[in-house]
Amino acid sequence: MSSQDIPEENLPAEQEHAHGAVSVADEKNPFADPGLPPHEHRIQDIDERAARRSERMVALLFTVSMLATIGFIASYVAIPHDKSIFVFPIGHLSALNFALGLTLGLALFCIGAGAVHWARTLMSDVEIADERHPIEAPADVREKVHADFKQGAKESAIGRRKLIRNTMLGAVALVPLSGVMLLRDLGPLPGTKLRHTMWSKGKLLVNMNTNEPLRPSDVAVGSLTFAKPEGLEEHDENFQTEIAKAALMIVRLQPENIKDKRELEWSHEGIVAYSKICTHVGCPISLYEQQTHHVLCPCHQSTFDLSDGARVIFGPAGHALPQLRIGVNDEGYLEALGDFEEPVGPAFWERG
């Protein structure tokens, strides 16, 4: 059905507007302006049933966008990152990347297609020519802008076409969730990893140099020994991550020289085990002074007293080194009696 088949009285009224058309050239206007072509009504302007079909189509596109966004989130959560699929003719692809690209692309495409279909079939398509005006906006221009805005909102039918409005808002509101989900790729959620290391009850103390379990006799008075947890090897994929938290320094003191009561209880025959990671910025501590029982961080000279709970006596470090409680197993090897009771390393936002 076209506008020519509809009686004149049933057609929507044309909008009257001045466009300054000049049909005949003269000295003042050497170029003729034929003006705008006659407006042709669309089927949706004439038949409400066609308008409703267009409305349902737009709503369907927005609904598909919402479902695609939900599919994006579900794919991100459910599909393993190492799973692959074969897609002809491309070949093998990451199943996760393929699903994310497909669902996000479909969500964005449906929003765009829905908006275009809405504009082309339901919004007013009457062309309006407006005269140029100065940059300043007098009161009458502002009133005209407000009136034009209200007229545009009315012609868009966003208030009357509630199905389109609601599905559009739902689609536009859901799409940003795709970007929020992508923030997860900044790294795995830490959980409680920052609070724990590989040390646990029964873990043997292994010499970092010899890779052999330590006995009390291996630690001489005044010596500094570095240790790692049993089962942690240098060829392990997570070695650097774990050793950065679990690195241990072991010093043997005379029991009568230990001033801190808890330090003495957590030691074995004067052998004390402390985190090697400086509590300032995480540098490895490696300098030990036998006479004073002080250890020094080489980065910023933070100094800790190992005879007094490894408290800070100099430098920018904010708190003492965490101590590991140790003992001896039935075979005579030094072992941990648990994990550190507080997070190791630099300042932690919820220590203790």
Automatic annotation (TrEMBL):
Domain Rieske: 240-335
A single cellular component GO annotation: plasma membrane
Designated name of the protein: Cytochrome bc1 complex Rieske iron-sulfur subunit
Pfam families, sorted: QcrA_N (PF19297), Rieske (PF00355)
InterPro entries linked: QcrA_N (IPR045603), Rieske_2Fe-2S (IPR017941), Rieske_2Fe-2S_sf (IPR036922), Rieske_Fe-S_prot (IPR014349)
Subunit structure of this chain's protein: The cytochrome bc1 complex is composed of a cytochrome b (QcrB), the Rieske iron-sulfur protein (QcrA) and a diheme cytochrome c (QcrC) subunit.
Ranges annotated as biased composition (Basic and acidic residues): 14-30
Annotated localization: Cell membrane
Residues that span the membrane, as ranges: 58-79, 99-119, 163-183
Function of the protein: Iron-sulfur subunit of the cytochrome bc1 complex, an essential component of the respiratory electron transport chain required for ATP synthesis. The bc1 complex catalyzes the oxidation of menaquinol and the reduction of cytochrome c in the respiratory chain. The bc1 complex operates through a Q-cycle mechanism that couples electron transfer to generation of the proton gradient that drives ATP synthesis.
Organism: Streptomyces actuosus
